Amino acid sequence: MVYMYGVCKALRQLKVDERAKFIGTSAGCLSVVSLVLDSDFDAICDSVVHDYVPAARASWRGPFQMRDYLVDAVTRHANVDNIHKLHGKVTIVYTSLSAWATRRVSRFKNPVHLLQTMVASCCATPLVGLPFQHEGEYVVDGGLLDNQPLFEDGVRTITVTPNVFAAADIRPSRYVPPWWSMYPPTQREMRWLFALGYEDGLAWCVRRGLPGAEGVEVPTEAATYRGEWKTVVGQVAGYRSVEDAVLAVAGLLLLSEETVTSSVIRLEILLWRLVAVVAALLQWTTVLWAVLAAVTLMGLTLLGQHCTLEFVVVLGAHLTVAVLKLKEACW
């Protein structure tokens, strides 16, 4: 979500919002409403970093309280007294479960109606609560049926997404774990994500030669940020706890931190060592089973319990397997 706020900060700096209309769903609707209502994006980022991220990471319930964070952010920062600025300029998209259709709203009766429409657009169950009734029908996240809405009249649209794998005009120029939208990373990574959105937004406007972008110097702090990751697994997962677990496993296997660096080859060596350990355990398990089976059958034969031809053949087969397994294990 903060990536989108960073992009909108860049668009406002170049006054793109003064000559455009907007359409958005989920996090997109939050950012464009904030843009048109002149919200302070730096203040929003501070709230996310200092209030919502710690709350979401404090307990297992935290990630499932995103609706509370959303309502608080809109109430504190959206400047809903300027709701008249949205009419005809901002379209919010949500999904009607009752009709199984997309709904688009560009006129808002009052601040409460605006807030309910935004919550409907962001209602990604279960993280942002369960579907609820709005305008006489059950509603849910707009991304369910229209994840990247465009204007129906063919107007050229600048598409923006926080998903690095999606096709859009403005998207993260660096890898961003897609599950960060479900469970936030550390405060430092959230700060970086906001800065990355700002830089990507400016960079796109400069490349396209938008009016006002002449001579704009694009910062590179977020683009060159490395995050001090020590492992590929930690960087891909995007969570320090995952990286700590990888390093702990490496320590149990007597591998140094230098061995588990940001290298796919070294990571592969670690995985193959784990496979080798599992394979060795399976090998000795089959050896033990073959020997026990052969000894049991031989004991029954010596005791005269089974002396049939079929039983002797089975005994011979198990003895052969036991000898071969012992030979493989010892040599």
From TrEMBL:
Q: Which residues form the active site?
A: S26 (nucleophile), D141 (proton acceptor)
Q: Which GO terms describe its biological process?
A: lipid homeostasis; triglyceride catabolic process
InterPro entries for this protein? Acyl_Trfase/lysoPLipase, PLPL, PNPLA_dom
* Presence of keyword Transmembrane helix: yes
List where the motif DGA/G lies. 141-143
- PROSITE patterns (UniProt xref): PNPLA
Q: Which keywords does this chain's UniProt record carry?
A: Hydrolase, Lipid degradation, Lipid metabolism, Membrane, Transmembrane, Transmembrane helix
Q: Which residues cross the membrane?
A: 270-297, 303-324
Pfam families referenced in this protein's UniProt entry, alphabetically:
Patatin
GO CC term, one of those recorded: membrane
Motif range for GXSXG?
24-28
PNPLA domain residues are 1-154
An MF annotation (GO) of this entry: triacylglycerol lipase activity
List the protein's name.
Answer: PNPLA domain-containing protein
Q: What is the lineage of its organism?
A: Eukaryota, Sar, Stramenopiles, Oomycota, Peronosporomycetes
